[in-house]
Specification:
291 residues, alpha/beta, Nucleotidyltransferase, domain 5, Dna Ligase, domain 1, 3 domains, five-stranded mixed β-sheet, 9 helices
C-alpha cells in the first residue's frame, strides 16, 4: 500500500555521441526520445568539460549512459571468424588482427560483430579495436557523476539500431561530413554499409537548382548499391529507403528518388535528427524497438 513512498526513481536513460568536433546527448523520457543537448568542440580533449556542462545543466547525475564513439577513434577489419569455441573467441580475437594494427594488441580493446553469411566467403566478422586508454578515459568521465555505463558502441551499430528489428530489409541514407552513408539492415543486423561522396553541397541547395545533377548522380549511386546487395547478398526486396539528410526539399527529393528507383523512399523522423551526431545518439536509445 505504501510501496510507492519508498520506491526509488528509475535512473534516466541517456545516450552520448563522442566525436572529433561534436558531442550530442539524447534522453529517453516517457517512451519518447529527444535531443537534449549538443555542442561543438575543437578536439576530444574537450569532452570532459563539455560533458560536465551537460550533466550539470540537465541534472543527469546517476543516469544510465550508452555511448557511441565516432569513427575517428576506432578501426574496423573484416576478417574470417576464428575457428575456435565460442567461449574462446574473445580471447583469440586480438591475435587474429595483430598483423593488421600498428599498436600492441595488449594496448587495445577488441570486440566484433557478425557479418551476414555469404556462401563464397564463409563466416565473416568485423573486428573493432579501440585504444584501451580511450575506453578507460570514457569510463572514468562517466563514473565521475555516479552514472552507470551501459555500453560503448560504434557508428555502424548505432545506425543499425535506428531501423529496428523488423524482418523486412530497410535502408537508411544519412549524412556525415562530406559523405553520405548508406546502411542496409535486416532483423537488426547490419548487412551492408557504403559511403557516397560528392553530394553534400548539392543537397543543401533548393532541389529546383540542382535537380538533374543531384537526382541523376544520387540515383545512379543508389542503384549500383542496390544491384550489389541483390547480387552479392541475395537481397532483392527492399521495404523502405529512409532519408536522414539536411535538405530543404527532402519530401520532394524522397518522392523523386522513389520514382527513379521504384522503391518506397521516405524522410526519417524529425529534422533535428538529421545531423549525423544526433541520429547516432538517437539510435542508441531505440534498442529493441521496431521502426
Amino acid at each position: 500500500m505504501f510501496k510507492t513512498l519508498f520506491s526509488k526513481k528509475s535512473p534516466a536513460q541517456i545516450s552520448l555521441f563522442l566525436g572529433m568536433k561534436r558531442l550530442a546527448i539524447c534522453l529517453l523520457e516517457d517512451g519518447r526520445i529527444r535531443l537534449l543537448a549538443q555542442a561543438t568542440v575543437s578536439s576530444d580533449s574537450q569532452w570532459p568539460k563539455v560533458f560536465e556542462s551537460f550533466v550539470n545543466e540537465h541534472k543527469l547525475h546517476n543516469s544510465q549512459v550508452s555511448v557511441v564513439l565516432s569513427r575517428d577513434f576506432y578501426q574496423t577489419f573484416d576478417i574470417e571468424k576464428p575457428k575456435v569455441e565460442e567461449n574462446e573467441l574473445m580471447a583469440s580475437l586480438p591475435f587474429a588482427i595483430k598483423d593488421l594494427v600498428s599498436e600492441s594488441i595488449f594496448d587495445l580493446v577488441v570486440d566484433y560483430y557478425d557479418r551476414p553469411f555469404q556462401q563464397h566467403k564463409g563466416n565473416q566478422i568485423t573486428a573493432v579495436c579501440v585504444p584501451k586508454q580511450r575506453i578507460l578515459s570514457i569510463r572514468d568521465m562517466v563514473l565521475k557523476y555516479a552514472m552507470k555505463l551501459k555500453e560503448i558502441t560504434v557508428e555502424e551499430l548505432a545506425l543499425t539500431r535506428l531501423l529496428g528489428n523488423r524482418a523486412e530489409v530497410n535502408l537508411l541514407l544519412s549524412q556525415q561530413n562530406n559523405e553520405l552513408v548508406l546502411t542496409v539492415v535486416k532483423e537488426g543486423q547490419l548487412f551492408f554499409s557504403h559511403r557516397l561522396r560528392g553530394f553534400n553541397e548539392l543537397l543543401a541547395l533548393p532541389l529546383s537548382d540542382v535537380e538533374n545533377t543531384l537526382l541523376d548522380g544520387l540515383s545512379l549511386e543508389l542503384q549500383r548499391a542496390l544491384d550489389y546487395i541483390n547480387s552479392q547478398l541475395r537481397i532483392a526486396s527492399i521495404s523502405h529507403l529512409y532519408l536522414a539528410l539536411v535538405c530543404p526539399d527532402i519530401n520532394l527529393l524522397a518522392e523523386k528518388l522513389g520514382s527513379y528507383l521504384a522503391k518506397n523512399v521516405v524522410p526519417f523522423g524529425e529534422k533535428d535528427q538529421y545531423d549525423f551526431s544526433n541520429i547516432l545518439a538517437y539510435g542508441l536509445l531505440m534498442e529493441g524497438e521496431d521502426k
